[in-house]
Amino acid sequence: MTKQTERRSSMGGGHGPGRGGHRIEKAKDVRGTLRRLIMYLRPFTGTLLLVFVLVVIGTLLVILVPYLLGVAIDDYIANRDLPGLLRITLFMLGAYLGQWFIQTAQNYLMAAVSQRALRDLRRDLFEHLQTLSLSFFDQHPHGELLSRLTNDVDAVNLAVSENLTQMLSSLFTLGGIVVMMFAVNSWLALGTLTILPMMVGLVGIIGKRTRSGYRKLQQEMGRLNGIMEETFGGERVVLAYGQQQAALDKFTASNTAVRDYGIKAQVYPLLIGPLMGIMSNANIAVVAGLGGWLALQGLASVGNIATFISYSRKFAGPLRQLGNLYNQIQAALAGAERVFEIIDREPKLNDLPHAIPLADIEGAVRFEQVNFSYAPGNPVIQEMSLSAAPGQTIALVGPTGAGKTTIINLLTRFYDIESGAITIDGVDIRQVQKASLRGQLGIVLQDTFLFSTSVMENIRYGRLDATDEEVIAAARLANADHFIRHLPQGYETELSERGSNFSLGQRQLLSIARAVLADPRILILDEATSSVDTRTEAHIQEALLKLMAGRTSFVIAHRLSTIREADKVLVIDKGRIIERGTHAELLAQRGFYYNLYVSQFKGLGEKEVETVDSRQ
Amino acid sequence: MNKLKRLLKFVNPYRKEAIWALLLLIAVIAVDLSLPRLIQRLIDKGVTASNMHVILTTSLLMIGLATLSALMMIGNTLLAARVSQNFAADLRSALFQQVQTFSFGNLDQLRTGKLMVRLTSDVNTIQMMILLALRIMTRAPLLMLGSSVLLVVTSPRLALIVAIFLPIISVFLYFFIRRAQPLFLRVQSKLDKLNQVLLENLAGARVVKAFVRTPHENARFAVANEELTAENVKVRRLMAVLPPTMFLILNVRTVAVLWFGGQQAIMGDLTVGQIMAFTNYLMMTMFPLLLLGMLAARLPQANASAQRIIEVLDSTPEVQERSTARVLQATGRVAFEQVSFRYNLSGEEQVLTDINLVAEPGETVAILGATGSGKSTLINLIPRFYEVEAGRVTLDGVDIRELTLASLRGQIGVALQETILFSTTIRENIRYGRPQASEAEVVAAAQAAQADAFIQALPEGYDTQLEQRGTNLSGGQKQRIAIARALLIQPPVLILDDSTSAVDVETEAQIQAALTALRQDKTAFIIAQRISTVLTADKIVVLENGKIAAEGTHAELLQSSPIYQEIYNSQLGEGPGSGLAA
Ligand SMILES: Nc1ncnc2c1ncn2[C@@H]1O[C@H](COP(=O)(O)OP(=O)(O)OP(=O)(O)O)[C@@H](O)[C@H]1O
Ligand SMILES: Nc1ncnc2c1ncn2[C@@H]1O[C@H](COP(=O)(O)OP(=O)(O)OP(=O)(O)O)[C@@H](O)[C@H]1O
Ligand SMILES: [Mg+2]
Fold first, then answer.
1. Ligand nearest to the CA of A504
2. Are strands B523-527 and B493-497 parallel, antiparallel or unpaired?
């Protein structure tokens, strides 16, 4: 329970480093989010300056051309000056071409800027994800995380990409009109501008709602993605149990919510247009009324009023555009907040600041009074001490859930111990850089995971610079070469997602090959052959024994036949070592291990069990 | 284009709302067109005449009409958003349901990352396009029509010049769309790839970390990211041309009018006032044309997305129910009759060849064999996860292809070799196959699977939340939950595919004992590696290279089958002896 809530709140809040705040707090940090978003444009300052210049020129052209049109009609057509008309039409044509060029260039330049900024955002998100601990990945729906990279970055995309230039030109136009207004009549100008605060207020209110609308939408979209990913990933179980309807129901609940949030989120920003429409018409009325009154006072001319009415109509356009942009930015912020939420998560298992790389090791491993629990108050490893001399093979056996995999998780520093110490060659593993530690381990995890690339690339994952021959040699050692060669495409066969086009045993063989290829100082086999038949296993066994000679190895297995040769067998139960010794010693003890061992042969025929007994 | 049209049928249920949205839009245009006249009146009759009364009434009328127009526009927006979002939700749902009809064969091809892009990004693209269309569709043509009439009335000859530009615009848009569509397709497929890389890194985080491949993965992501960016930049650069070019064409149109109109005016065929009016009206036609341009800009993207969505909707489930399929209450006799199978009908070797096997109700059939010999494949044919290539599988003598999938699979409890649990509570996971099962039944199933004890020991017991794929349980614990899940549906046929591989021998023996007690009347298929697991089976089948190499009881096989003897020896023949000798 406590874990659950801790997880939720830590996910929701905390942008600024070290701040584990609540959800509501987020609204405050709009500025910060915006600033960070803008930081992503920084590498493109040069281009942006160029775009700025283009926008200024472009805006001037946009103002110039209608003026030319007026000149053409008034001066040349009215005066029947054909050559003059030709000149000015050609001039206009040139101006339009210039306008085309400038606008195209703007968009062209901005396309690259925005897309590259987004690329950098995605890169930062991904690279930060890589630094997060395993428990983070275990605790968060993968689809949800995926959604941050796609849907949330997309939300940012919409606002950033095309609109920056629009914003600039709207601002210019607006500024120009305001200057003109004050030039014509400052009283009327003031009257016209009274509407401005109201509009700004309105946009602000809608903006807030847009942001919270989008935040809810993006959140729910994340949830929906989580549901989808989990359902598709577990689709085989859904089918096997005929639970398609239940899966659909679960999907539909979230899908409907996405729809409802989507409607709200999309409608709010679209309200700006119509509402601004009311205001600008009201504004015209105000100008007319005020103008009439001022005219009576002799403070304005009728012509002034007509001009102002047309100004306040022109005013509305760019204002509306700015309002829309503001709202799009709000939507973008909702997406950006969610992206930054991840980027701001501090990696739990960071290397210490003064961590040093672990030098080439001999492979002496020691656990000293190690305690560990996944959740506070529920110890999984207790007061565990063990040692492995370089080159020794240590077997870990014990009932399921005893904590064997956990020991490996601690040795690899997937999790950090609570108290005690784990040392390799006398160096505490918390004092060294994780990468340098893991780089010297070769691990076959209990849950095999393969990538959907070729067989060759999957094995080569163990050592990226391995030659094809080395890969094949590793496969041969793992007894995988035979079946790989049988495949139509051999080593180039592509794996389906998670390798589902191979039998589980075959997948285990591949992951053994992968670990073997790494040529590690310490080899860790966590039930590496649990799904492999015993005959194949016996073959691998021989090869592995050769390989393990001279390397420290940890072997976890339920089939005790595989660990007979171990230098030391540790029997783990409930997170403690309850027996230790060689296979023979432990059998002689007639304790836990003996029982475990004998139960393998229960009923198999009295003969074998008798041999066990008679030899004692 | 056709692709998009096909998806538009998803708008049908919301046709009424869509039509209302468009009607409101027409009303808005009517009101909006009257506003300039009112302003005219305000200036001419009110301001110029210093008539406060006129100013007041006209102003109020204007504000009233503007409010009315705004309200109608808001109505339109609401309706458009509802229609388009409902459309999107339905489309997502259709895609999701399509996946639910898939069979294992389809799942082998499935790329979750790709599929999810289709359900989100692609659907969104089309949704946005529909939203836009509903908000401008009638506005553009109406405005066009109105102003075109005015153009013709003002000067038919100049109108002709204007008309020439229409085909130019059409041709431009046509080529633009043609060029843009493949680019958008590429963008989306790069997005697929990026998603795939990320998903793999999430699911395989342990492997990435264990092998310290973060730099490698970062590089892999960077490549995908760079490719996506390059395609995006390409398509956006193309799009960059659209609005300015539309403007240019329209502006050239104005210049043309000015030139030709000016000549006519100079000759006296046209008044200056007419030209001014004409250019004004011309400006009015610009707006709808630009709107059309906007819509056109979205078209190729929407169409590319539509194509990708239809790809999924059109994919055929490999295993399909026959229309004559029926329901059967089986006793659990399963028979393979000369069954052959291969995964990929084109080319690949047969995985199973000529399998004949009968399991009588209540019998336990154990399957042994080398890795990759076809054990999982064999049992996957019973619930029809894959379709046999030749021969048939029968349940109570009925070809399973004659049965509805629900009826067939409802009577088979299967614990798949790869344990997949969901991130809900342990209780929910156990009763996954029968959500209405009582607490007592859940506990009973857990007890039989030897899971009850460890579940009770957890701080939150059956309410313990599992993490992604159940990572907060040990391997053996996960397997036992999966066994409990299969047992809970109390099926006539039970299949356990290597379900105790991560369980220690003692616990396994206890599971065995519990199962023996439970499965009196059940047919059971048990795949295992350990001889001790299969010892008491009524029948042991040894698979070798997809063929049945031997069949019989333990005692019989030990006598007659060399392969079985080999397996036996690999486990203990030399077993205890060699260990002790050391
Ligand atoms: N990520 C986790 N979060 C919380 N609890 C966990 C987590 N991983 C394992 N546990 C718990 O810790 C205990 C030890 O698990 P571990 O995986 O080490 O067992 P094991 O000895 O490897 O068992 P098996 O033989 O079944 O693989 C179990 O009770 C398990 O439920
Ligand atoms: N989905 C699939 N697509 C293509 N080939 C497959 C698929 N699943 C299995 N195969 C191939 O079919 C053969 C039989 O696989 P199967 O999973 O039945 O083996 P198995 O006997 O269950 O092995 P294991 O003991 O390792 O589980 C193997 O060569 C495997 O590579
Ligand atoms: Mg199998």
1. 2
2. parallel
